[in-house]
Design brief:
Elements (H helix, E strand, L loop, with lengths): L1 H21 L1 H11 L6 H22 L10 H22 L4 H5 L24 H17 L2 H29 L1 H9 L9
């Protein structure tokens, strides 16, 4: 039981650190402290996130595989469908961004002012990368059916919903009425079917 509580704690700590470092206050603080080196901030931020995710993954792999049910081929097929659909959605979402800038690899270039993007997957949902993440983690849970994977999926869902709240506040601050109109028109995570 303690190992699962630690898993929840680690995911919560990751979420808090990830959100704080992505926030405007932290960026402003580090911009003041780092001076000209602040151009590496995005690269450092992504490096920290990657290393911590690997550590979380390693810890989770060390947990017992307590299955909640025996997975049969139908559930496995459903899990695979969710997993691959999520990967496709995430890939299509990332196509809308300059990956060099997104990863922080273009630290020598002056960053262009942000523009509100509403094309591609962003035409159907406001946060397609999170949609893909939801589909991937729940697909993994269906395939694995373990308590550790359920905890991971639930923690990622909760963190993502909280992260969306703060991200939307930042987007409203950046784009004002344009983003509010976009938000009224386009659903958050899953496209309108009708």
């Amino acid at each position: 039981m303690l190992s699962y509580l630690l898993q929840i704690f680690f995911w919560a700590a990751y979420g808090v650190l990830h959100s704080v470092l992505a926030g405007t206050r932290a960026k402003h603080f580090f911009q003041q402290k780092m001076g000209n080196s602040f151009r590496y901030y995005r690269l450092i931020y992504n490096g920290i996130a990657f290393v911590l995710l690997i550590a979380l993954w390693w810890y989770q792999r060390s947990l017992p595989t307590d299955r909640l049910w025996m997975v049969d081929f139908r559930v496995d097929v459903l899990g695979n469908m969710s997993l691959f659909l999520g990967m496709i959605v995430a890939f299509l979402a990332l196509k809308e961004y300059d990956m060099g800038e997104f990863l922080g690899l273009l630290f020598w270039k002056k960053q262009a002012p942000n523009q509100l993007k509403t094309s591609g997957m962003l035409h159907y949902v406001r946060h397609p990368l999170y949609t893909g993440t939801f589909l991937v983690v729940w697909g993994l849970f269906l395939k694995d059916a373990s308590l550790a994977t359920l905890i991971m999926a639930a923690c990622i869902n909760i963190y993502t919903r909280i992260g969306i709240y703060f991200e939307e506040k930042k987007l409203i601050s950046s784009f004002g009425d344009d983003y509010l109109a976009y938000r009224r028109r386009v659903p958050m995570l899953f496209p309108k079917i009708f």
